[in-house]
Amino acid sequence: MKTRNLIFQFLFCVTGMQLLIAHTLSGQDTIYLDNPSFEDIPRAGTAYTPSIVGWNDCGHALFPGETPPDIHPVPAHAWDVSMQSFDGKTYLGLVVRYNGTYESVSQKLTQVLKKDKCYSFSAFLARSDSYRSGTMRSNAKLENFISPAVLRIWGGNKSCDLAELLGQSYPVDHANWKEYNFVLWPKEDYSFITIAAYFADDADAGYNGHVMVDNLSQITEMECK
Q: Over the range 86-96, which residues count as b (16 or more CB within 10 Å of their CB) and which as e?
């Protein structure tokens, strides 16, 4: 009888721990992005190009006259880009330009990023060895957009709202895909996320560069450290 009671007590404790763990995990929010690997028809971004599936182009509002982001890889190696995707069939190319403009995309989140909560997030980033494109100053003469750019992650409460910078990568200078991990720690509640290419912190002026983006992770609540 004593042995049976000990077994019951042990099983009760194990069950209690399982319920506690399940309750703790259920209290952590996981936010899933729409089209996190940028699966769409490969194409150059033009004034008449529709927005990427699941994402809004921010360039039309921020920098009228500049083209929106591109979806790679395009057949016949357009822009002299031959990289393959890390996940799925396509990936996103974001550029920064000599005139201080840059490309970015935004989407509404399925759950709010909560003030003073911490979240884990990751992205696979790379840089093509060549990225030849026209510019506002000379669309006929192609320029090589190969200077390393960074990826910025913004929180906001409307599409393309740059209310708070939540994360930034190092300048991406490698042709192979690498995973970059971020901890997002918002100071306010945000219902939108924007990802943008931007200039390296030590840059004195605008330059032509780019970053390739693929396989964004879900945004998962974590313990703040």
A: beeebbbbbbb
Q: What is the mean pLDDT of residues 93-112?
A: 97
Q: How far is CA 43 from CA 62, 98, 125, in A?
A: 21, 23, 19
- 64 upstream amide cis, omega within 30 of 0: no
Q: Where are the domains of the chain?
A: 30-222
> What confidence score (pLDDT) does residue 43 get?
84
pLDDT in tens, 42-62: 987 665 578 899 999 999 889
Closest Cα partner for 87 from 116, 122, 118? 122
| Whole-angstrom distance, CA of residue 159 vs CA of residue 141 | 33
Question: To which CATH superfamily is domain 30-222 assigned?
Answer: Galactose-binding domain-like (2.60.120.260)
String of DSSP letters for 2-27: HHHHHHHHHHHHHHHHHHHHHHHHHT
pTM (2 d.p.) = 0.85
8 Å CB contact between 148 and 131: no
Q: What is the pLDDT of residues 16-31, one digit of tens each?
A: 444 444 444 444 689 9
